[in-house]
Amino acid sequence: MYDIRQWRHVFKLDPNKEISDEHLELICESGTDAVIVGGTDGVTLENVLELLARIRRFQVPCVLEISNLESVTPGFDFYFIPTVLNSRDKKWIIDLHHGAIKQFGDMMNWDEICMEGYCILHKDCKAAMLTDANTELEEDDVVAYALIAEHMYRLPIFYLEYSGSYGNPRLVQRVKQALKQTQLFYGGGIATEAQAAEMAQCADTIVVGNVIYEDIHKALATVKAAKR
Ligand SMILES: CC(C)=CCC/C(C)=C/CC/C(C)=C/CC/C(C)=C/CC/C(C)=C/CC/C(C)=C/CC/C(C)=C/COP(=O)(O)OP(=O)(O)O
Ligand SMILES: O=P(O)(O)OC[C@@H](O)CO
Ligand SMILES: [Mg+2]
């Protein structure tokens, strides 16, 4: 399924983490709508290429979420490009993007590119620390970022990121109610069927990451729960 707007559940695989062939097959054949390859640290061309080749044995749509320029390679179905809206450092909002487009803009296939407006809310996660995200936000601040994403920047995706910790469903629901066009991704701390079902009610698409490496069966159970 290549219509991102229909995606309800995606797995995020970290190229910097080990996964066995058996577990990778279970993930790719799980019925998830797509697999995103991405992580904050230790993402290299070598480990991205290795994971891409292994995922390509299956039919599942495969996305590279770009975290650095060195690890970008052809062969993915889509490229998701994060911009961290609540970063205090404009490097993570626009500067890296400006440098990349200056260098590669004339050879990009824009149909494969999808921008993600991140709002990172877990202060201790790697992505928050790397990008110096301001996580001390009121609910109204978060909704304001969502409205900026939709109405000012017209971003296709607004991504509420709680990586490593389960977020606040009430806030996710509030953000969802504020968005009309922009697709709401929620990711962070989903480790049970109940959590997957709850966040799938609040967001358009849920992203399941770390539990893949902690308990594969719990990870697999999130797929059905999200689609119920
Ligand atoms: C060959 C081909 C297809 C060419 C295309 C041309 C090309 C080079 C296009 C690139 C164009 C472009 C504009 C690129 C952007 C460049 C860039 C580096 C942007 C910055 C991205 C950014 C803001 C990164 C910050 C970190 C971040 C938000 C990462 C997302 C992943 C994430 C949040 C992971 C969660 O953390 P995790 O690592 O899982 O944490 P744990 O390990 O603790 O679990
Ligand atoms: O790893 P977890 O905590 O499941 O979060 C998923 C994803 O949002 C990370 O970018
Ligand atoms: Mg992770």
UniProtKB/TrEMBL annotation:
It is an enzyme of class 2 (transferase). GO terms for molecular function: heptaprenylglyceryl phosphate synthase activity; magnesium ion binding. Its EC number is 2.5.1.n9. Keywords: Lipid biosynthesis, Lipid metabolism, Magnesium, Metal-binding, Phospholipid biosynthesis, Phospholipid metabolism, Transferase. Gene3D superfamilies: FMN-linked oxidoreductases. GO terms for biological process: glycerophospholipid biosynthetic process. The keyword Transferase applies. It catalyses: sn-glycerol 1-phosphate + all-trans-heptaprenyl diphosphate = 3-heptaprenyl-sn-glycero-1-phosphate + diphosphate. Sn-glycerol 1-phosphate binds at K12, Y159, L160, E161, Y162, S163, G164, G189, G209, N210. Its cofactor is Mg(2+). Pathway: Membrane lipid metabolism; glycerophospholipid metabolism. Mg(2+) binds at D14, T40. SUPFAM superfamilies: FMN-linked oxidoreductases. NCBIfam families: GGGP-family, PRK04169.1-1, PRK04169.1-3. Homodimer. Belongs to the GGGP/HepGP synthase family. Group I subfamily. Prenyltransferase that catalyzes in vivo the transfer of the heptaprenyl moiety of heptaprenyl pyrophosphate (HepPP; 35 carbon atoms) to the C3 hydroxyl of sn-glycerol-1-phosphate (G1P), producing heptaprenylglyceryl phosphate (HepGP). This reaction is an ether-bond-formation step in the biosynthesis of archaea-type G1P-based membrane lipids found in Bacillales. This is Heptaprenylglyceryl phosphate synthase. It comes from Parageobacillus thermantarcticus.
